[in-house]
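Hi R.,

Here's the input for the magnesium ion complex you asked about:
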Amino acid sequence: MRIGIMGGTFDPIHYGHLISAEEIADIFKMNLVMFMPAFIPPHKKKGKMTDVHHRLIMTTLATVPNPGFAVSAFEIERGGCSYTIDTVRGLKKKFKEKIRLYFIAGIDAFQEIATWKDAGSLFKNCDFIVSTRPGYRIDDLFYMLDRTVSKKYRDIKFRIEKKNPFYKSSSHPAPLPAGERIEVRGHGSKYFIYPVETTALDISSTEIRRRVRQGMTIKYLLPEPVEEYIYKNGLYRES
Ligand code: ATP
Ligand code: MG
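And here is the predicted structure with magnesium ion in place:
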């Protein structure tokens, strides 16, 4: 079983999240992509964050029409700070290692990976799929990992591998342009980091919240049921 984990605050979820998850699910033939709203995202500033039950409902509303998507309250039920390493370890234990986990992150989030809790162990426990922007090169990703992760965790080394088994030039000319992946080295298990060019939608939750606050339209940035939910519950009216 190949399971994608799409972590995030989802405050609110929008089409940028959904399109990258869908395209990744398609390319990697995922059995399921689990959207996992963080209870307390370790990397967000301690500003006002929408109550978790609203974020969970919005994520559910956005994903129910897609049978390949599911929502997981795993981090919410665990409570406390939502560290990815705890989530990955917890899921592997729960599914008794019968699954292969692919943690999906945007390049903006992944760039900070060396600062994530126990990042060294993370690379020994799951694969990563990193959605990048057109023009982003695998070398940039490699050097970033080399400069940050390998420097901090001396036993972890990275290597660019020319062959990527998920790369099909005929069916996906754009999403995996180089047909390469990065191998994580330095321990027994084999895990990889896959850069993927997903359709770039310049949408962020921050921008959606700002628009609502200023009375501007948010139509077509996120699914209609989520838009309706935001207005019905008076979310994002104040900063
Ligand atoms: P905020 O503006 O509050 O930071 P966000 O739009 O970045 O919100 P998050 O919940 O922080 O959304 O992001 C969750 C994950 O989705 C991260 O890995 C992030 O890189 C990715 N992501 C966010 N926006 C997009 C987008 N437009 N396209 C592809 N991936 C995205
Ligand atoms: Mg963000």
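One thing worth noting: The first helix runs from residue 15 to 27.

Cheers,
M.
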